Every structure is written in C-alpha cells, then in structure tokens.
Known about the structure:
- The complex is a heterodimer of chains A (164) and B (697).
- Chain A has 164 residues and is mainly β.
- Chain A contains three helices and eleven strands.
- Chain B starts with a helix and ends with a helix.
- In chain B, α3 packs parallel to α5 (119-133) and α17 crosses α18 (491-497).
- Chain B has 697 residues and is an alpha+beta fold.
Amino acid sequence: MSQENGLFARMDEQRNPADDQAQTDTEKYLVVTSAGVLYGVNTRHIETILTEISITWLPMLPQHIRGVINLRGAVVPILDFRLLLGQEPGEKSCTIVLDSEGVQIGIMVDEVDQTVDIEKENILPVPSQQAGENKLVSGMCTLQNGSGTLMVLDTSLLFNGQLG
Amino acid sequence: MGNDMMEAYLYEMNTLLEQLDDIVLAAEEAKTFSQEDVNEIFRIMHTIKGSSAMMEFNTLMTVAHRIEDMFFIIRDKGMDVVSDDLRPELFELIFHSIDFFRGEIEKLENDEPLTEDIDNILANINRFSKKIQGGDADEEEAQAPAAAEQAGSDAPAGHEEIFGSEEFPYGIHVFFEEGCGMENLRSFMVLNAVRDLCEPSQMDCWPADVETNPDTASFVAEKGFFVRFVSPDIRDLALPVVAETGSVAECSPFDYVVEAPAAEEPPVAAPAEAKAAAPAPKAPAAQPAAGANNKQQNANHQKESLISVNLSKLDELQAVVGEIVITESMVTASPDLKGLKLDSFTQAARQLRALTDQLQDVSMALRMVAVSATFQKMRRIVRDMSKKLGKEVTLTLEGEDTEVDKTIVDSIGDPIMHIVRNSMDHGIEEHVEDRIAAGKDPTGHITLSARHTGSEVIIQVIDDGQGADDDAILNKAIRQGLAVPGMDYSHKDILNFLLMPGFSTNTEVTEYSGRGVGMDVVKSNVESVGGTVTITSEKGRGMTTTLKIPLTMAIMDGMEVRVGTSAFTVPIQNIRQIFRVTDDQIIHDAAQGEMIEIMGNFYSIVRAKEFYQMMDGVEDFEDGILLWVESGETSFCLFVDELIGEQQVVVKPLPNYVTDFGIRDYGVAGCTILGDGSISIILEVSSIYAMARSYAR
C-alpha cells in the first residue's frame, strides 16, 4: 500500500501563492538527491511524495520503468531515476509523483531534501559538451546556503516517455 | 454563439435526419407516403428550417424551407398529386436532400465552411414542386410560401396598413431594422421601454401577444409593431423612448381613423384577432399549421422522459462506481477485522454489497443502447448500393433491440458498414442470371443480426451471394506476398487472408468498397473493443461474417492467477478448462515447443514465466497449472504458477507512458486494482499466442 508523506502531501496548495509571485520571477524547487547529485524539481509539477510504494512489475518494458502503482485509484507508471541515467540501483528510495495536465508519472530518487526558492535569473544554462544526464537537465544553479549545485530537471522531457 | 448551442443543434439535426431517413426508406418500400409521414416530414423540415435560421445557416434554412413548401403541397392535396411514375423521383430527391444536410452537418462538425452553392438542389426541388403542382400552379404558388409562415402573419399587401384601435386611438408605428430577426422580442423590448411612462390600462399594442407568440415576428417584420395609447400626451412622451430602443429603424405617430379598412375590435383575445386579420382564404392554411404545432408538442411531451447525457459523465460515473466496488471489498475484507465477531457489521456489510452490486448494474445499464440505430443506417447503404450496382437486394434486420455498451456501438458502426458494403459489392452476384442458374432467389438477401450470449454480443452479416473462392483468394494472397506458393492452406487459413492488411479481393476500386482499406481495418476496429472477427463461407452459397464483442469492456469476470510475484487476470470468457498435468503428458516438438493433447487435438503450451522473461515462477508442470484458453480462432494452453480465484474486476487502461512500448502486443491489455489495492495485469490471450508464435519462428 502506498503511504503518503504528510509534509508534502498537498504540494499543490502552494501553487496559488506561487502564481501570485510570478512577477518576482521566483519559483519553488524541491531538492532531491540521486547518486549524490542534487536535482531540482519545479514544485508546480509535483502532485505528491511517497515513501513506501508497492510497484507492480510489467513485462517488456525498458529497465528504467519499474512498473505501475495504484495512487488513489489511478494507475501511475514509476521511473527509476538512477536506472534512467544508467546507474546502479540505490539502497534507499523515495518517489515524487509529477503531474502534467492530468498525466502522472512517479520518479524514484534517493532522498528528498528541502524546497528552495530560486530566482529565474540565477538558473544558468548547462554546458553543452556534457553528455548523458544533461538531456534531462534544463539548467544549473548554485544553492544560496552553500550546500552545492542544483541540476534543474526538465520535467516535460520526463513525460515524453521514450527515454533511456 | 456558444458551443453548447452548436452541439445541441448538431445533435438535433442528426436525430432529425436519421428519423427522416427511416421514414423515407419505409415509404419507398411502401411506394407512398402516408398522411402521417407527410406531416412528420413537414414537421422535421420546419424544425430544421427554424434551428438553421437561428444558427444563421441560411443555405440549410433555404433548402429546408423549399422542401417544407413542397410537402405542403403534398399534404394539402394528398399523395395522389404525385403520380406513380414521379414517386421514385420524389424519394431520390429527398434522399439527395438528406445527403446534402448530412454533408453540411459534417462540415460544421469539422469546422469547415458550408457550401454556398445550393442552386442545383433548389432547382431540383422547385422543378419537382412545379411538376406536382400541375395546372393550378399559380394559385398554389401564392399559397405555399404563405403556409410556411405561421398563423398570424398576413398575405402580402401593397399598402402600409395601420392597425389602430378605437379605445387607444393615438399610436406609434414602429419598424425594426430589416433582417434583424426576432422581431417579436424586439417589440416586447419596445413595450417594456414605454411601459414605465403610463398606467398599464392607458396603453396596448398590436400584435398583442408578442411576448409569448414567436409567430408574431414575421408579422412585425412585415407590417411593423403598433403601440397604442389613450392620449396624445403619453404618445409624445413615448416617441423618443421608442426611437432610442435597440434595432428600431423607424417610428412614426398615427391616429386612429374610424373609416380605416382594417378596423379592429378591442383586443380581447389574440386568436380572435388573428382570425380577423387573416383574409378568409388563408384560414385553411392556418389550420394544418396549428395541427403540426400540436403534434410537435405531443412529440415533445413524449420525449420528456428521456434526457441526453454527455458520455463523459457516464464514464465518470462508471469509474466512481468501479472504485466503490473495490473499496467496498477492501472495507469488508479488511485484515483488521480478522477473528472479530461482528454480527451487525457483517449484516450491514452484506447489505452494502447488495446495494453496490445494484449500483453497478444500474450504472452499466445507463450505458447500454440498442444497436438499432446502427442497423438502420445499413438500410440506406443497401438501398443506395443496390440502385448503383443494379443488384436487387433485400436487407433483413434481426435483434435490433439488442443492447450493448455505447462505446462499443460507436466502434462497430464502421466495421458493420464495411462488411455490408463488401457483401453488396463482392458477395452478391453481378448478374441475376448467375443467381438463377445457381438455383437461388433472383433477389439477393443480406441478413444483419445481433444477439446476446451471456457476456458477449454476436453480430452477424450473412449474405447468400457467391461466397469465397478459395483458389482466387489464395492466388491473390500469393500475389500480395501474404501466402507462400506451394504450401498447403486450409479453407480456414485461406479465409483468414481476407482479414490481413493489404488484402482486397476486388482488383477494381469501386466507390463503395476498396478505398485502400479492407477487412483488416474491420478486424482491428473490432479487436480494439476486445472483440473477434471470423469469416465462414462456402463457395456459391454466400458468406457469413461474425463479430463477437464483449457486452462491456469496463467490468468483467476474471480469473486471478499468479506467476512468480506477479498477479494476472485472465478473462473468464477466454478460459475453456483448467487442469493440472504431469511431465509425461507433455509432447515436445523439434523446435523445443511444448504441446498437450486434449480431446484428440494438440494445443501448444505457452509458459507465462518464459514468455514474459520473468525471474520467479515455477518450472515443473507438476507445480503449476494449465489454463486452456481460447479467443476467436486462437486456442492454446497457458502455464501459470497457481490460481488465486475468480473475481469481478474493473478494467483500467494502462497509462500511455507504458503502452507506448508496445506491451499490448504481448497480451497486456490493461490492469485492474484488486481488493487489497494491488494491481493485476489483464491478459489478452490471442495477442499472447500471436506473439509466442512469432517468437517460435
């Protein structure tokens, strides 16, 4: 059975204030870690965060699609972010469910860290020579608190199924 | 103009045209229109005219208007006015008009511009109207258009008429902008504007019932609207107010003159006045129009017990009901309750179960519609094609009131049409002599039937034509590269070529069949709703195409099975038998394939674990269980670990994100959420077999 993390259970409540602040060009990002790298996911797309899930395996899918889960009656596919990038599967996992116009997918990452406000102008372009993961990363940003560099995920690419 | 209005208009038009099609088809068979038919057609055309005018589709309005006029003549003079030799022309004309409307409606649905050029069809209608009018055309011509207007309008008059009143001698004569429409409502707005200026008893208007009677619009458009007051002072006050009201083109004061020819009695009752205003010869025309109105009201009254609901709402309802069914079993079978003695809970739970079952039945029943509408459309196709191809064919419909899920009805319309066209085109013999020589009735027969068998509906198209010529089909299949020359094919195999992509037996492309799509489209359409297509045929005896379609795709009875750690659902309807086997019953072939003999036939075994390349699962036949499954032509055995049990499941589609990887081809048709919240994969056995065979090759 799925269990929701109460803290993030209703991310979408934060959407409206975010819309109001649109003029200031600041957006909220959820910081997650996968294989030691920090990734930022725009909270606008986050439906919920799950800690325990029971995945139903489906045959004949690429390895990075772990299967589907039952999320309040909806069948949601689950991607393993490490496997998507061709890395070894991790020990711990946490699943962020993203929603794009009613289509939902879940992304398994190692850990969820915190949410941060990032001004748009602070997001810098990714150097083009980097191959691999950078196709999923739309920008980079140095975190204010000095905890590291954040890779901003291009969530629309994740929805575009044919990855990996 | 809102989308809702457009939608309502399109829905109305489609319903009316369907109705019209039915009437004309039946009439053509009877070779005459009954008085009832004529009235009905008159009413339909009137409604089309009205709605099209409202939506400002003037071409549609004009055509409907002309047909209405034509039927006015027929209604007035009886069907005898159309001599027997003219009747086929009349039917053809109406069919043409229906096609015209259909074509235009389709354009509207696709957001395309309407046809501007309607002269051709109008000319045809006019020519026919003239023909049936015969000698006394002049008199009729004057009456026909007038009849189309409603009672209360008046015959054309050369002079401006003033409708004064003795009681309210001081009036204002109001004209609205030409072509502004809805003159009655605009008049009412004028009335409202001046009403505040005086007591209600100090004024009145003509026509008196502009608020309630839409038929007054044409009167106002033609002759203007009259507001009348008791004193000139009030009128002088009102004049500027009227002039400022919307759409008023012209307003002029007038005084009541006793000698006026159109003297009026005090306006007590509107109908009485209407009669007085209408010249004597018009009275009979007004009468039938009123009759038609009554009839329309009756029809409306009958329809009140039916409502049309957006299908998406029903889908939503079904989804929620599905969730309730699952949640109910989650609650009542909750592991927390284990070992507790809960008498009243058990009782309440039992009642809840009964109610949810009932709810499920009701919500399913809501989606069920009769196949009759789809079947009726075929009448028209058979009629048109038999005319065109010069083949005399009768169509018999059976089991029209068989009900199936709405989504299924929608998706079988095209396949059935295609099969019927095929039968007309390729099935029924080209020459009557051939039929006579074969000892058959010179008239061809096509039977379209529908019936239920438990969880399936079976639709058959049976023709008594020339049937399938095995050699011709095989040669063709070889030419198309579908068959291997020199290989032996059974009769069944050969018929299956007909269902393969890229196969079309007729070398010549005709208007009706063979537009580059063939029976393979029929097959894929039917399979998309979980059905199967089979063809049986005997040369010279005709052909039978059978569609087997599940009644509903949303809820089905499934057998839960386990393979390794995964749960699968096999539709009960596909399972023929379940049994355990021992290793020595298994027959191996040269290609490592495994088979088993059941009742004198050999069936291949597909191991689910290997087929899906799963990590866990039993290897030995002794440890697992065999399901003998069947779907359409496919029959084989599926080897799984164990049975979990039979269960009613709600079918959920898998997200596109995963189906994009082609897992449907591997027999993963969908999924369902089980009572404990876990997901089970629903298998489609024919795809498994097809894929397993392609592996083996």
